[in-house]
Design brief:
about 150 residues; mainly beta; Immunoglobulin-like; 2 domains; four-stranded antiparallel sheet; 2 helices
């Protein structure tokens, strides 16, 4: 008698228990011929069916955006970097560039791949030899003030 009561209790508790739950700000459901996708901010749950099998899972995409600007650097030089994304060349435009500014380019591994002294208000850097991906450019003046920008190379 006790064994059957325990079995019933376990079965009922499984029916009313919840696996994973998330409190999200927004999200939605999309379905098509290949399956359906439920998405939310920070967490993506997907379901796909193929040849009679149902595959489910959770993906958590993220992007680390590393940018910072020293406010006095931004006020002194008014930097504009364009076009972003780029395929051929990158233009770094500054105003009031009375101090020597160095632009150092870092790849996704954090290795410095190029360093250029900006000697005028408009400097062009060729990106033809860069692999496609995301890069970080750190601009630093002789006083140690700096700004960091993210650029994309196609």
């Amino acid at each position: 008698m006790m064994k059957s009561f325990s079995l019933v209790a376990i079965c009922l508790s499984a029916k009313f228990s919840f696996g994973q739950q998330a409190i999200v700000a927004t999200g939605g459901d999309v379905s098509g011929s290949g399956g359906s996708v439920s998405y939310s901010i920070g967490q993506v749950a997907f379901t796909s069916s193929q040849d009679g099998f149902v595959n489910e899972g959770v993906q958590q995409p993220y992007e680390v955006l590393i940018t910072s600007v020293d406010e006095s650097f931004a006020a002194d030089y008014q930097v504009n970097i364009y076009p972003n994304p780029t395929a051929h060349e990158l233009v770094i435009q500054t105003k009031n560039a009375y101090a020597s500014i160095t632009a150092e380019v870092f790849n996704q591994a954090g290795s410095s791949i190029e360093s250029v002294k900006l000697r005028s208000d408009l400097t062009t850097i060729s990106v033809m030899n860069w692999a496609a991906g995301a890069y970080v450019i750190r601009l630093k003046d002789e006083r140690g003030k700096s700004a960091v920008y993210k650029v994309i190379k196609h």
